[in-house]
Amino acid sequence: MTAMAKPMAKPMPIPTPTSQPFWDALAEHRIRIQYSPSSKRWIFYPRVLAPGTLADDLEWREISGAGTLYTFTVCYRAVSPHFTDDVPQVLAVVEWDEGPRFSTEIVNAATEDLRVGMRVRPVFTDYPDAGVTMLRYEPA
Questions:
Q1: CA pair distance 15, 10, nearest whole angstrom
Q2: Confidence bin at 71 (pLDDT 50/70/90)
Q3: What mean pLDDT is predicted for residues 83-91?
Q4: Is residue 133 located within the same domain as residue 97?
Q5: How confident is the model at residue 108 (pLDDT cuts 50, 70, 90)?
Q6: Residue 97: how many CB atoms within 10 A of its CB?
Q7: Cα–Cα dist 132/23, whole Å
Q8: Which residue range or ranges hold the ChsH2 C-terminal OB-fold domain (predicted)?
Q9: Judging by beta carbons within 10 Å of its beta carbon (0-12, 13-18, 19+), is residue 122 exposed, middle or buried?
């Protein structure tokens, strides 16, 4: 009799002091990203200074998370052994209504129904053992 292999723990993000407010908001099932009043634009990924202007005026503001599917690819081969049970996996980029783009995964959707330009909405996936909430998307 052989023992069943224990599933590999998936790698989880490790928040930094700069990105901690983003992860804290996800834990509350909210999305907060940075906004630069001097450049009047939303910023993502989290930074210390505003890109372009280097202004020290970045503020954390809540967004709805609603957006458009900008691009996607269907992975039939796991990107690492940790994701073997997840294939096919839909890796995607969502463009938030506020402008920035976010790399994510599409869930709760048949791959043949996905179209670039379709509306999507956030799905919060909690990993209590890791103390992390991941932001994924599904068709709106």
A1: 16
A2: very high
A3: 92
A4: yes
A5: very high
A6: 14
A7: 7
A8: 60-124
A9: buried
Residues 6+ away with beta carbon under 8 Å from 71: 92, 93, 116
The share of the chain scoring above pLDDT 70, in percent, equals 94
- Residue at 37 is within a domain: yes
Alpha-carbon span 91 to 136, nearest angstrom: 10
Q: What is the band of 1 on the pLDDT scale with cuts at 50, 70, 90?
A: very low
69 and 138 fall within a common domain: yes
Report the CATH number at residue 71. Answer: 2.40.50
d(CA 13, CA 117): 28
84, 78 in Cβ contact below 8 A? Answer: yes
**What's the whole-model pTM score?**
0.89
Q: Which of 46, 16, 48 is nearest to 31 (CA)?
A: 46
Contact 55, 35 (CB under 8 A): no
User: Residue 103 contacts by C-beta under 8 Å, 6 or more apart in sequence?
Assistant: 91, 92, 93
Q: Are 52 and 39 in contact (CB under 8 A)?
A: yes
